[in-house]
Every structure is written in C-alpha cells, then in structure tokens.
Amino acid sequence: MSRRALVEWGLFVAPLPVVLVIAYLVPLLGIFQWSFTDPQPGIGNYVKIATDPIIHSIAWRTLRICLLVTVVSVAIAYLISYHWVFGPPWRQRLIEVCVLIPFWISVLIRAFGWVIVLRPRGLVNEWLMTAGLIAEPLALVRNEIGVVIGMVHFMVPFAIFPLMAVMRQIDPRVMAAARGLGAWPIRRFVEVFLPLSLPGIVGAFFIVFIFALGFFITPAILGGGRVVMIAEYVFLQMSQTANWGLGAALSVVLLVFVSIMIWVLLKITRVEKLVG
Amino acid sequence: MRQQGPGRTSTALAYLAMLFLLLPLFAVIPVSFTGKRFLSMPEGDWSLRHYQALAESSEWLGSIGTSLVIALIAAVISTVLATAFSLGIWYRRSKLTPLLIGFVLLPMAVPPIISALVLYFFETGANLYDTIPGVIIAHVVIAVPYAVVTLLVSLSQLDRRIELAARNLGASVWQTSFLVILPNLKLGLVSAAFLSFILSWEEIAVTLFVTSFEVITLPRRIWSGLRDNIDPVIAAVSVVLIAVTVSAIVIRLIVQAQRGRGVEQ
After folding, report:
1. Could you give the ipTM of this predicted complex?
2. Which residue of A has its CA nearest to B237?
3. What is the pLDDT of residues B175-227, one digit of tens each?
4. Nearest residue on chain A to B25, judged by CA atoms?
5. Nearest CB to A16: which of B82, B205, B246?
C-alpha cells in the first residue's frame, strides 16, 4: 500500500476506534483499577464479594430470575416465531405488528404499562375479582412475579430474531418428507423440526440470558426495590451508598461472567447463522 | 401437496402470546384519560386534563426538547463515525479487520450497567458530567455499534465492481465515496441514523449515571416520575409516544406492501 493510500485509509477507519479508546476503553481500564484501589488498595472488594452472604443471595436470585426469564421468553418466542414463519400470510403480518410495536417502545413505558396491569387495583386483579375468582387482590407487582413478567415481555422480541432466522432456513421439503413417511404431527415436531431449530434455541437462550443479567431498569421499577438483582445492586452502590470500589469490582465480576458466556456462544454456534 | 400449517391449539396460544405483548401498552390508554389526580381507571369521568397538564408543563416540554436535540446530534455523529469506519473496512481488508470490528462492537456486548459505570468514569474525568455534550458522547458510544452493524450489512449487499469502476476511471477515494458509494448506500445510511436516533431518544441506563439535575432527558423525567409518586401525566406522555411509534410502524408496513405490489406488477 502506498503511503498516501495508507493515510487515506487511516482517515476513514481511525476516527471511531480513537473515540472509543478515549471514551470507553481507557475508562473501562479505570474501572478495573478502581476495583483494587477504592476505598483502600488491595483485593478487599473481591474478598467481600466472595464472602458477603448478602451479595451471594443477590447473585443467586439474579441467576434464578434470569434463568426463569430466559426459559419462558424463549418458549414464548419459539411459539411466535413458528407462526411468523409458517402461519398464513395475514397472520404473519399481524404478528409482525404485534412484535415490532413493543420492540420499538421505551423500556420505561413498558414497565409502567405492567405496573398498571399488575398493581393491586390494576386490570388483572379487577378482572379476577369481578369474575369472582379471588376475594383479595393478588400481589403481582413489587415482587419477583412482577419482575419476571416485565423482563419476559422485554426479552421476547430479542429471542424471536435468532429463532426466526434459523426457522426460515429449515427446508420445508424435510418436513414434507417426514409427513410422507407417515410421521404424525407430534413426532414430526419432536424428531425433525425441534432438532433442526436447535441452533436458534441455543442462540436465543444465550442472547436473552446475557442481556437479562445486566439489566436493571425493569427490575428496579417492577421490583419496587424489593427484588434487587446484581445490576440494580451495583446501581444502588453507586447512587446511594457511594461504594465505588465495590460497585466496580462487582462490574468486573459480571463482565468476566458475561465474556465467558459470549465466548461459549461463539464456540457452539455460528453467529452468521443467527443473523440470517 | 399443501404444507400443513400450525394446528389449532398452537394458534390459540400464539394469539395469547400476542395479547401478552400488547396488553401493557393498551392498558396505559384509559389511565391517561382519568379525571382523577392520581393513577386510576376512569369511571365515567373521562378527561383530557393530563394531556393539558403535559402541554402546559415547561418541565416536560423542556425534557422533550432536550431529548430531541441530544438524539439528533448523537444520530448525526454516530452515523458519520460509523459510515467512515464501515467504508474503510469495506475498501481494504487487513489482518486487523476482525479485531477492529470486534472492538467497535464492544459497547453493544457489555451489559448496560457496566457501560453506565464506564461512561460515568469518563465523564467525571473529562469534566463532561451532567452536561449536554457529555450526554451526547455517552449516547454516541452506546448507539454507534448498532449503526456500524447496519452499515456493514448494507455494504455487504453492494456490488464491489462499482468501486473498482469508479477508481479505474480515475476517481479519488473521496470522489468514489461521496459520488458513487454513499448515494448507493442511502437506505443503509437512513436506517443507521434512525436507529441511532431512537437508541439515544430512549436511552435511560447510561443517562442515569452521567446526569444529575442539569440535563433531564425525557426518559430520565419519566424514570423519576415512576419512582416517586406516579403522576398520570406519565400515562399521557406514554400514550403520545406509543401513538407516534405505532403510526411509524404502520406507515412503514404500508409503504413496504405497496413497494412489494409495485415489484409484482
């Protein structure tokens, strides 16, 4: 490459990475450093993470809720993707609208909508009481139920995209062949379609799980401060108790965990396949 | 032989799933018309008072203005940076390419809470904390990976020979970019800018960390409203935003359908 061409190429490629090094990479390293220096030098913050029972219970709760949210989201997304790909054309269009509308609407408004639906005098409780099914309002919000419902609602579209990409690549002739060979619908699904769509399930599972781990807006609103997960705990360390070092150390642990998950995802599935 | 479609049970479940997706959005609509001062379903007392309060509130309107300005500038900067980068990557492959792309996409893979902390660290150090330029930079960092992905996908669909043709006819890199490539990339550029705009307009996780009381974006004001005492004005704001989003999606689908029909004819 001539010197001039190299300079021209650099003028195109360099600005964005330079901006990100200054505004993202250097401060990220600063966070690492913080986790070892604040409030005093040493590995005190990491020792606290390893030994503090409160942090352990928050970590377990985070894993439990995220796992539940991921399984439910992927199941719902699987159902919707199946109809989006194989349903009659008008249903496909209806599904497209029903998925895109929540997808493009702010996470705050979606959480707010769930508060209205789930609170003690909200839609669901009013319906159930009018129908005479319950006498007292059920507690559906400011607890784990509310957090799980809100998070599932947020994650479903993110699980749909990888699932659809994989389902679209399944050759319909394979299904027709299974049918021609006399397999009943359930057997066709379990033995043919499900294994073929497995890469989509794995991709959706990881994407949703990774996303759910670091997510704190919906849990903060629908949990009402009672269902604190790891990301919200970091937020509280920063915004209320000013435990900068502990927050930084927790972020480092979370980042390492997420990096491992992404690495596993890249190892077991081909990402190109998931984006279609 | 017709391919057998989904069965009845599964169809019924799919409709339930769609109801689940839309329910919280529909639920906001009646609440925004309540005549009461607090969050409630209207019981015969439908009123526009909360919309009026929204239209007359200098705080809410100010936040809408702040968010618009920030999102517009962040979208322009993200698109320009992402375009230059993607073009460079497209023009010349090198051993560095995968590493560069991986690095640029980093903020997309890192959990929002960590990005928030990182940008807080940057902005307090650079004296940008709680300023409009600070929020713009933070939003650019969050949005730019999505713009890069959009543009790289558009570029991958472009015929490489148009670049070679332009270069062989003696055009410089700049002439090739501005007169040949970019005009062919219009749709990708618009999508990247639009996506960056929306991401900035809705951004809350990072914004919470890099602002305190000077710069209150619309999501930040909604967040404070939701955490303190829930004011039905939030329902009115939500309905306006939902209405805008739904119209945009429906218009896009109609335009798409008409284009599709045009192609068939």
Report:
1. 0.91
2. A109
3. 889 999 999 999 999 999 999 999 999 999 999 999 999 999 999 999 998 87
4. A113
5. B82
